[in-house]
Structures are given as structure tokens and as C-alpha cells.
């Protein structure tokens, strides 16, 4: 038995793999630096085989020239990278919140390796990033990314000019939302830090002979962990709602 593919099928498979593969490489969780590249390629290949019979009708015939083929391939890569990076940018909100919380609780210099980025980051930032990514997969919110891939063929039809103005506007909106949600998540800790250090300043004026700040640092860390324990579930529910709302923009 021999299996053959015509030029049209090979062309469509290549373009679908370019869009899905570039998105998988950039998306959070699976596209992290700690995940082997071969595993990401296998997942992209599986998704391509699943999507091939569904979206192959959206593609036209094989271009007659090599530059047209390269342009079609680059267009698919741009769409996939944009969707993946948009999802990854949303996860930056927990990094902003974690960094703000770390500095307010006196643990800003407590660094560890962030598995998502492969670099050093604040302790709270790494913890919230891992927790958020875990909850996204546990609650099946990663299905939004797959749905976004399918609906991307309706929003960004192959062969049409890419809306780079819409890309840039949405990227700016997501970047602004990252800092807004990040500060909102860390707002209780910012208020706590303001009140705590204001109280320490008053005590240092009342008792100048006592090293108030050295005595209060353990209390600051302890109260920060207690506040995190009380607010963690609310913070994650708020963030997951933001994640779902943002990715819904790619679903028609």
C-alpha cells in the first residue's frame, strides 16, 4: 500500500503547521522554556492533523510563484505568533502582581528560577505564575486557545492582508491590561505595606532607641504570607476571569 499526497494537500498541511506550530511555541505553559522543543513540535503536529480536515477549505490553490508561497507561509507564522504571544502576555499580569507583593512583604530580593521564563524572578512572582498556569490547564481554559486557533481562520482568513493596525491596538490594550490587573491583584498588599510602614515610622519616632525596622521585618513577612493565604483564591479567580475575557476576543 502506498500513500501519496498531492501538492494542494502538502501546501495546506505546511501552512496549517506553520500557524499552529508558531502558536504552540509562543503560548504559555506548553511554550515555556522548561518544555522540550520536540514535545512542542509533536503537539503542533498532532493539532495540525486534527485541524487539517476542518480548515483546509479556507485555503486556495498552490501559488504559482515562490515569493507568493513564502508570503503565505510568513502570514500564517505571524498569525500564530500573535495569538500565542497574546496569551503569554496575559500571564504577565501575575508576574507584575507577584513582583509588587514581593517588594511590599520584604521578599523582593528572594529570587528563584521561573520555569516559565527560565530566568530569575521574585519568589511570589514565580509561585503565582506556576499556579496560574496550572489552574488554566486544570479548568480547561487552554481550550480557549484551541478555539482561538480554529476561529482564527474566520478572523484572519488565509490569503487576505493581515490587519497589523488591529494587531498593534490589541497588543497595546493587553499590555495596559497586564499592569492594571497586576496592580489590582496586589492592591491589598500595597495598602498593607503603606499602613505597616507608616506605623513603623510612628513607632520609630516614639522609640528612637529601638531598631524598629529590624524587629518588624519578620512580622512583615509573616503578615504578608497570612494575607496571601486569605486572598489567594480570590486573586486567582479574578485573574482567570481576565484570562478568559481577553482570549474571548479571538473567538467568533
Fold and architecture overview:
This protein has 252 residues and is mainly α. The protein has one domain. 74% of the residues lie in helices and 3% in strands. The chain has helices at 7-26, 37-55, 66-104, 123-138, 143-155, 164-206, 212-247; strands at residues 111-114, 119-122. It has a two-stranded antiparallel ribbon with strand order 1-2. Strand 1 (111-114) and strand 2 form a beta hairpin. Helix 3 (66-104) packs across helix 4, helix 3 (66-104) packs parallel to helix 6 (164-206) and helix 6 (164-206) runs antiparallel to helix 7. The radius of gyration is 23 Å and the shape is elongated. The two termini are 42 Å apart. The mean pLDDT is 80.
Quick recap of the structure?
74% of the residues lie in helices and 3% in strands. With 252 residues, it is mainly α.
| Number of H/I helices | 7
Roughly what fraction of the amino acids lie in strands?
under 5%
Return the structural class: mainly alpha
Arrangement of strands in the largest sheet: 1-2
- Reading the helices and strands in chain order gives HHHEEHHHH
The major pleated sheet works out as:
2 strands, antiparallel
| SS elements, strand count | 2
> Average pLDDT across residues?
80
What is the global morphology? elongated
Amino acid at each position: 500500500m502506498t500513500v501519496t499526497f498531492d501538492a494542494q494537500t502538502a501546501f495546506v498541511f505546511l501552512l496549517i503547521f506553520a500557524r499552529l506550530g508558531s502558536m504552540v511555541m509562543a503560548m504559555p505553559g506548553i511554550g515555556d522554556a522548561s518544555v522540550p522543543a520536540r514535545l512542542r513540535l509533536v503537539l503542533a503536529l498532532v493539532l495540525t492533523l486534527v485541524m487539517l480536515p476542518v480548515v483546509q477549505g479556507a485555503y486556495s490553490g498552490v501559488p504559482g510563484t515562490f515569493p507568493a508561497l513564502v508570503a503565505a507561509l510568513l502570514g500564517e507564522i505571524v498569525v500564530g505568533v500573535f495569538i500565542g504571544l497574546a496569551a503569554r502576555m496575559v500571564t504577565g499580569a501575575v508576574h507584575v502582581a507577584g513582583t509588587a507583593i514581593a517588594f511590599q512583604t520584604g521578599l523582593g530580593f528572594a529570587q528563584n528560577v521561573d520555569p516559565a521564563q527560565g530566568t530569575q524572578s521574585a519568589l511570589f512572582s514565580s509561585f503565582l505564575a506556576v499556579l496560574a498556569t496550572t489552574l488554566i490547564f486544570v479548568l480547561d481554559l487552554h481550550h480557549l486557545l484551541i478555539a482561538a486557533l480554529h476561529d482564527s481562520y474566520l478572523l484572519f482568513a488565509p490569503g487576505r492582508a493581515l490587519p497589523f493596525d488591529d494587531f498593534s491596538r490589541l497588543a497595546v490594550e493587553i499590555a495596559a491590561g497586564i499592569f492594571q490587573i497586576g496592580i489590582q491583584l496586589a492592591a491589598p498588599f500595597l495598602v498593607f505595606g503603606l499602613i505597616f510602614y507608616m506605623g513603623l515610622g510612628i513607632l520609630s519616632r516614639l522609640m528612637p532607641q529601638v531598631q524598629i525596622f529590624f524587629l518588624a521585618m519578620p512580622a512583615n513577612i509573616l503578615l504578608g504570607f497570612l494575607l496571601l493565604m486569605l486572598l489567594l483564591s480570590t486573586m486567582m479567580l479574578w485573574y482567570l476571569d481576565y484570562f478568559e475575557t481577553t482570549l474571548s476576543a479571538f473567538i467568533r
